[in-house]
Amino acid sequence: MKNMLRELKYFVFGLATATATFIFIIYRTELDIDGSKHMSQWNRDGTSGTNGIYGKSSYPLHTKDSIRSSFNGMLNSACVKHKNVAFVKPHKTGGTTLASIINRFGYDRRLSFVVSRYNRRNGHLRQLPITSDSPRTMFLPPVNGGGSKYNMVAVHAIYNKTAMRSFMEPDTAYISILREPVGQFESFFNFMQLRTSVMRAGKPEGTSALEAFLERPDYYVPKLVHDRDKDSRNNQFYYLGLKPEFFENEKVINETIRTIDNDFALILITDYFDESLLLLKRLFCWDTEDILYVKKNQRSHRTEVPENLATKIRQWNRADVLLYDYFNRTLWRKIKEYGPNFDSDLAELRKNLQDTFDECVDSSAVETQGRLKRKVEYKAKSQTTKFCSSLTRSHLDMHRLIWTRQSPRYRHR
Fold first, then answer.
1. What's the CA gap between 103 and 109, in Å, rounded?
2. What pLDDT score does 194 carry?
3. Against a cut of 0.85, is the pTM above it?
4. CA distance linking residue 31 with residue 8, whole number of Å
5. How far is CA 203 from the centre of its chain?
6. Tens of pLDDT along 310-336?
């Protein structure tokens, strides 16, 4: 009965949102809303002067113009859930939580995912070069076998426009997520064991590993292990395709930002995760239940970065700062264009998130685990629903299901 009531609530809420959207689109035909004026509230101006940490149809979505066409087409056609999504996943941006949403959506609909056939643990491709031949040499085959295109990407992989468009469905929507660069780099530095490499290389007494690295990055970068020398600077932009030789070339940086803006349907912002999900929900015509989540791969505690180190982090990751500032402004412009119901829709989403957490999660089973015991994992309540089990499933368990389904050895199961 609780499940039926919850589904009825989502249906009513979705109907109300669709009605409000229809009214707002008509309203927009009468008024010219200046998208260049951004919300003026503190921390909504698109700048990176904060250490905040995350706390629409089946038409082609390759460019912003086609997104607008799809959105405007809602006036004349039924809203259909968009099923082809390529998520370019930078490190330490809340991407595992977003990937869990995409994976759940795709797995429930028996869609085909790009995953490495050689990485059964999590399917990541990371820094491996992707080409049009990668489906044959690197990926597990699609659900329907060779010759088919892929529907979804939700693993770490470097964006390659030409290659990805060769093996993804033609109407694939490309999305990514960015996090405020100070908090993102501090998390990356610790989680990816840059700290360990600095400690092994030796550091001045009385300084932290982060301080030592930022004081002499040219000395420490060659000593990093596991290919971290390649993505220890501007690693968010690196995964979106900017090559290291252009990290200090602002002309190329700005041109690449404009290219990403044109190629991607949406860039979410970790620091405004729920706000970003509302935009994604409308863009892809998904239901509220499709975007519900519990946080994945989250550290159990966070470190405050002193302002003197924050300044050095921004200097070292200058390209990431420019990238983040641009798409943070873009996010708030899109929120303004969403219409007058945004705040109420956001409040309703957060209420649904809390209600679902209370219904699904066994609060006594929250525990830290993983590398250096810095992660929090949520367990489903006993005798729970199928939806709750799926919602609380770890990202590694979700990947195992996807990998098993697409592996030729298990194809017919």
1. 10
2. 80
3. no
4. 35
5. 34
6. 999 999 999 999 999 999 999 999 999
